[in-house]
């Protein structure tokens, strides 16, 4: 074989090897790249419950005002479950202590704070300024801020209905009222009670003894005793304990429960209880916090119409005609056909307070400082 033939054979072998390799490469199946490992989704952030705090002027066991507020707090817990955490501090004086307690509540992370008495207004306003991210609500006051609003109940509606019963049941024609602090709220209740009584007995007279405190059972007992000794046979109160009703029970007279149903404290003396249900308002307010619709700078004043005020547990010996009248009053207050403060209404000096045919405005009622006709004496400090 010549050299030329050898070279040709070698060249042919190389070309065959290359072609074979190419063919093998084309026929080989590509393996898919391994899929990336799945990335775990981040766990949803845990939603912290809304912290809500209540400052009470009296003990939760007072059977009246503070007891009613605490029932409202419990209604919030029942309505929202683990979405909220509530707490309270009881027996907080209307003094510098109120500011300290309210400030402490804000520092502990509470985002909604309720102050449940008139005397907390100025301390709360001051604390609200220092904690703009916290919402504050003040009961019975009139000052507001961007992060502070006020709420109240039309207790005078309950007082008026109690008066209708008192005027019918009094034998002496003399009623007695134990007053707490002489502010328009309390004066308004005394007047409304007397006006309701005059609906049953136009000749009724009302005597008032002031104790200048919201909760002081010994003073309340002393005042109630003085009123009974002065001729009153039916007692009413704008104080927070059950002492007035208990005193009437011991002395054989009649009386009313106030803020809560106090029947059990004096079943023989008890004529009815003018109660407040704070639950609907507290549930609404906390709901607004949870859904982001809470707004400051506003005022709310709820009554029979909103389910905040009622007269309950009317005694069996109250005449049916009087009970029927109470039912009619409730209907009128609910549908707006009845206005308790509609003129003519005179004060006890003969001066016109509300003109004939005129319905008193909320602004007028919020600044009331005079007794109506039938109430003896003068409002202290007026």
**Overall domain count:** 2
Helix share, percent: 25-40%
CATH architecture of the largest domain: 3-Layer(aba) Sandwich
CATH topology of the largest domain: Rossmann fold
Key features of this structure:
382 residues; six-stranded mixed beta sheet; 2 domains; Rossmann fold; alpha/beta
Provide an overview of this structure:
With 382 residues, the protein is α/β, with parallel strands linked by helices. The protein has two domains: 50-153 and 279-302, Rossmann fold (3-Layer(aba) Sandwich); 156-268 and 307-366, Response regulator (Rossmann fold), CATH 3.40.50.2300. It has eleven helices and 14 strands. The strands form three sheets. It has a six-stranded parallel beta sheet, with helices on both faces. Strands 7-6-8-9-10-12 form a six-stranded mixed beta sheet, with helices on both faces. A two-stranded antiparallel ribbon has the order 13-14. Strand 1 (50-55), helix 2 and strand 2 (84-89) form a beta-alpha-beta unit. Helix 7 crosses helix 8 (243-250).
